[in-house]
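Technical note accompanying the year-one report. For the benefit of new consortium partners, we illustrate the data format agreed upon in the data management plan: each record pairs a sequence with a structure-token string. No post-processing was applied to the example shown here.
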Amino acid sequence: MLEFYGERFASRLILGSALYPSPESFRRSAEASGAEIVTVSLRREGARDKAGQHFWDLVRSLNVKVLPNTAGCRTAKEAITTAMMARELFDTPWLKLEVIANDDTLQPDLFGLVEAAETLSREGFQLFPYTTEDLSAAERLLMAGCRVLMPWAAPIGSGQGLSNPAGLESLRAYFPDTPMVVDAGLGAPSHAAAAMEMGYDAVLLNTAVAKAADPPLMAAAFAQAVRAGRQGFEAGLMPRRNMAAPSTPVAGTPFFELGDA
């Protein structure tokens, strides 16, 4: 089973809660995905108004673990302030920590991320940092107190899939005992399966499901892909080869010569 900070989960799919065409669409998608963890973003201007309250009631009705995030924060200071507000509002030490460096790619600011992680770890937060496949950044985040890493596959909402599979494979191999979630940029169920086949512990999805023509159906498709990818990893994938390997060996095969009639 999947385990984060001492809590165990049957599903290896984490679902985002933004961009859905309606609250009902989100509810049906969450149920179809089987997700037991849902990310939510703190919107300061609407967190306590009537519409915001209806949304939190909906999330709570799903009986899932809430993972607040600091989406949109551009500095460590802003992320820390948002984290404190999120912990008060959602009553959880869990936090998906985001510090964004670039408006075009929404790439994580690794320097600000580590700075925020050091402060928030001291404050008792249990962090899920949104990072890249950079090995040195991963090491610094773990030293800062993070026990989970969430490397991106590609820019948020791009649907590109695993843009640097070699880098993701290296990260997974370098920290084999650290729970890791591939987050951002997954656009198709096959992308999620590929991440799971690498040995990643879970994937986090939002746009690919929320913007689908049929979000609940897409959520179900991703759920199946995640299960298949994990099963493939656990079963042991065959190694890649540069040359063909016959399924019927030539050695020992009888050969016959036909004489003249």
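Partners are asked to follow this layout when depositing records. The radius of gyration is 22 Å.
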